[in-house]
Amino acid sequence: MNRIDVVSHRLMIFGGIVMYVFGSIGNILNICVFAIWSRSKNTSNKYSHCCRTNNSSLYLLASSISNLIVILYPLFTRIMLDGYKYHITESTVFFVCKLRYYILHTFDLTSLTCICLATFDRYLISSREARLRKLSGTKKRTKLIILFIICLFGLHSIPVIKYYGVSKTGYCTIVSTVYLYYYLYTFQIILHGIIPIIFLSIFGILTFKQLRIISERKNHYRNKHSDNQLSRMLLLISLAIVLSSIPYCIEQSYYVLFNENNRQQTSYFFLYHVTCSILFYTNPVFSFYIYYISTRNFRIQLHRIIFCRRRAHYVVFYQSKPITSTTTKFT
Q1: Terminal CA-to-CA distance of the chain, rounded, Å?
Q2: Is the pLDDT confidence value at 290 over 70?
Q3: Which ranges of the chain would DSSP assign to H, the alpha helix?
């Protein structure tokens, strides 16, 4: 084993373990915060609009649970495969290849879709048009949408279990050439890359413009501060999605277009493969830190959880009324 291979394996081991630990802790804390926000109830008709504002918290709760599953199993097996050089056999192919990729694609796509829907729900809530605000549904409908998303991607990923196998060199590989191309362009490029990036970019910009107009009309400092929080969060999430999607898509495209899915790699390309694998998990791992850095109310709620303070329900900036302050206590 040459020096570059040693660096690649160590990078996967140390980088993967760090991401595994911090990603697991971060998403558990995400789940705690969003579970509280999604259960928030209002006792006054004055705040009756908030029956819809919990939708974003529900979407982000589902996204965080999906991210945790992606970290606990697919990331762990990736560390074993690329870090510790675990050799796949016919007896372990189901758990290491078939089940791993099924869980990875089902819950990673669920997480990305929920983030997109949370952004879209924020766009609806911040709209100045009543007909658009009414499109933000109730909590019951939101739960049904999340359940439908999980079932849809779960069914869509079933062929992964059928067509994934182990190559003669001990790598996970797709045995069907037809499904291999479908897998590359549908899973890796369209669903993991193009659609989330375009969707978040469009509705992030539209939401930011709407909140700027509201802020200018009302001349309210907190709304202005919320705009900055929103723009930072959307920018960081979009950046994380780009980093986690594009390099991995390039790698997969290389295998199919130029290398015929042959996993016999040069040392330099294996280093690139390890780097792409680490970047692929940046979105599920760093979502907590994006929320923590960009959202003041998220930090407040998290501190209350950690230090066991009396619980308070906050309507966070992506759950706010279009014309009111974004941090409101309910009694």
Answers
A1: 64
A2: yes
A3: 3-38, 50-53, 55-70, 76-78, 93, 99-126, 130-133, 139-156, 158-163, 177-182, 195-218, 221-257, 267-280, 282-294, 296-306
The tokens for 193 are 């890359």
Closest CA to 53 of 68, 67, 71, 39: 39
**Residue linked to tokens 């359940």:** 147
pTM across the whole model: 0.82
Written out in words, the top-level CATH class of the domain with range 3-319 is mainly alpha
Q: How far apart are CA 90 and CA 92, in angstroms?
A: 6
Residues in a beta bridge with 172:
166
The residues spanned by each domain of the chain are 3-319
CA–CA–CA angle 4, 10, 14 (5° rounding): 150
Q: Which neighbouring-strand residues pair with 174?
A: 164
* Bridge partners of residue 329, in order along the sequence: 314
**Contact indicator for 63, 114 with CB cutoff of 8 Å:** yes
Burial class (CB in 10 A: 0-12, 13-18, 19+), 170: middle
Name the residue with higher pLDDT: 18 or 254: 18
**SS3 state at 125:** helix
Contact of 284 with 240, CB cutoff 8 Å: no
Least confidently predicted of 14-18, 127-131, 324-328: 324-328
pLDDT in tens, 270-285: 888 888 888 888 888 9
Query: What digits encode the pLDDT tens for the residues 235-252?
Result: 677 667 766 777 777 776
Backbone conformation region of residue 320, classed left if phi is above 0, alpha if psi is from -120 to 50, else beta: beta
Question: What is the CA angle 191-126-292, rounded to 5?
Answer: 65
Instruction: Tell me the per-residue pLDDT of 39-73, one tens digit each, with 9 for 90 and over.
Output: 865 433 333 344 445 688 899 899 999 999 999 99
Positive/negative CA dihedral, 275, 115, 229, 289: negative
